Amino acid sequence: MRRICRVLFSRYAISAVLILVEVVLFGLLIFSMPKSIYAFIAVSAVVAVLALVNLINKDTNPEYKISWAVVILTVPCFGALLYLLFYKRVISKREAKMLREVISKLMGEGDADEDFVTLSEDSALAAGKARALVLDYPIAGVYRSSQSSYISSGEEYFERLISDIEGAEKYIFLEYFIIDEGEVWSKIHGILKKKAEEGVDVRVLYDDIGCMKTLPARYELTLRREGIAAYRFARVNPRVSSVHHNRDHRKICVVDGRVAYTGGVNIADEYVNKITRFGHWKDGGIRIEGLAVAGFVKLFLSSYDVTAGVESDYAEMLSSVKAPDNSDGGYYIPFGSGPAPIYKRPVGKNVFLNIINQAERYVYITTPYLIIDYDLTEALRNAALRGVDVRIVTPGVADKRGVKVMTKSAYPYLLEAGVKIFEYTPGFIHEKLMVSDGIYAVIGTINLDFRSLVHHYECAVWMYRTSAVAEAYDGFIKTLESCTEIDREKAKLTPLEWMYRNGIRLFAPLL
User: Fold this and answer.
1) What is the DSSP letter of 279?
2) Is the pLDDT of residue 454 over 90?
């Protein structure tokens, strides 16, 4: 109840009300302008046609176009206005300038070009995947001289992460979508305060909407008074804008340039099952040491510097990245993805498509949501039809009823092609994992839904023949032991679910 009251009377609620007022006023303005119904129809038709022509000529996902076309045609003039307001991600001149400068300075920093040459010699196919990824995400690099450990639970994730930050000597970087006041954050917070007092450079970046219900307003000021350089990503303001849709969904921890973490785990008690929300919470991640840590240093600084309006000493931060005593011999590419125009192409989606389309034996996936577009759907179906063992694990207990219906609605068409679908019986699986053919894996924050693939800032690590690839495979097989396989009968929607699916599916790409 305290949290609900905090939200209802917070600046978020005030901002939401003011945004709604803006939208209503726009609508009233439009509907009050024409002096006759005929003039209104004529104006609406012209505006709708112009908006549709603009939409059709955009180089973007066809399903995204269809959703906007429905909005424009349903309420021609008002729908066109919404399209103009929300379709394009508009960034300020300051933000655009800083982004260009940050990306320009980070390109090539800490990269080992010889590792890409070695990868090309080892496998032309893997090198092709790596080249496509690096072209999509310009500050990405190919790293060898690293080692990694797959983490199969939130409990293990925080046990290892806390141990590492307790040993920090130079810096601690934390970037998380959600930080919740509870046992986990209390312990980490205490360590961060102690380290800041010792002179360690402690930086924290959290998403403003992600922490809307979990942290007090202006909590970053409290942290700054404790010596922790904290900032809120994309602060909410009472302005109609598509910017509010683009959240920082990344989860990154970097300690001293020595070790990095990413995965599905936010800093909250449900991720370690201290509290129960949707049955047992199954999550996962990865711990990386060695040169690949440089990729996560760059990912964090690219977000932090733009948000904080500062310019970090990249060379200094990356100078502490060293090769480990024992390397696993594999290849790593830490990468980020996000909305246009900052990201010209859908980086995460393209990484998944490349793995699925070139899989020979198997593709195993865990995802909390399965709301995918035509491209990914057909890639999964085609892989299964050519004999690839395609298995997908989704939650048995959903965190959102509507999302569960949308996920379930994807089952029949995939099952028809031979894709095998399982639900995690004990509860909610939040892990984001793709492993294929015993040689490739992607672990990170990217869900298989439109929000992650189109709207959010995400991160992950692409791997080829690393130690974590084999461990991730073993982890997936173990997870299957707690799953129920879904057949066509279980995949059927009830009439109510079918109606909901048909209605919401039109607008799924916009949500």
Assistant:
1) B
2) no
For the chain, how are helix, strand and coil distributed in percent, rounded to 5? 50, 20, 30
CA atoms within 13 A on the CB side of 6: 11
Residue 65, pLDDT > 80, answer yes
Question: Is residue 331 classed as helix, strand or coil in its secondary structure?
Answer: strand
User: Mean per-residue pLDDT for 206-225?
Assistant: 95
Beta bridge partners of 147: 289
Amino acid at 441: A
Which pair of tokens denotes residue 279? 């049955």
**Residue 309: count of CB within 10 angstroms of its CB:** 10
pLDDT confidence tier of residue 8, bands split at 50, 70 and 90: low
Q: pLDDT-derived band of residue 507, with 50, 70 and 90 as boundaries? A: confident
Query: 380 by DSSP, 3-state: which?
Result: helix
Give me the half-sphere count of Cα atoms (radius 13 Å) on the Cβ side of residue 230: 21
What 3-state DSSP class applies to 148?
strand
Helices (H) and strands (E) in the chain, counts: 20, 17
Residue 454 — φ and ψ, nearest 5°?
-120, -45
CB-based contact 228:23 (threshold 8 Å): no
pLDDT digit string, tens, across residues 362-385:
999 999 999 999 999 999 999 999
C-alpha torsion 84→88→90→95, nearest 10: 180
Taking the C-alpha atoms of residue 357 and residue 364, their distance in angstroms, rounded to an integer, is 13
Query: Are the C-beta atoms of residues 182 and 267 closer than 8 Å to each other?
Result: no
Nearest to 314 by CA among 31, 104, 74, 174: 104
pLDDT above 90: residue 211? yes
CA distance 235 to 232: 6
Mean residue pLDDT across the chain: 88
Q: How far is CA 15 from the centre of its chain?
A: 24
Three-state secondary structure call for residue 160: helix
Q: How far apart are CA 106 and CA 90, in angstroms?
A: 23
Structural domains present in the chain: 2-86 (no CATH), 93-335 (3.30.870.10), 347-510 (3.30.870.10)
Q: Which of 487, 361, 465 is CA-nearest to residue 420?
A: 487
Q: How far apart are CA 356 and CA 240, in angstroms?
A: 38
pLDDT over threshold 90, residue 282:
yes
Nearest to 436 by CA among 468, 475, 466, 469: 469
Type of residue numbered 284:
G
Residue among 388, 393, 411 nearest 477 (CA): 393
**Which positions ≥6 away from 153 have C-beta within 8 Å?**
272, 282, 283, 284
**Per-residue pLDDT at 55:** 84
Evaluate if residue 4 carries a pLDDT over 60: no
CA quadruple 373, 242, 181, 226: dihedral positive or negative? positive
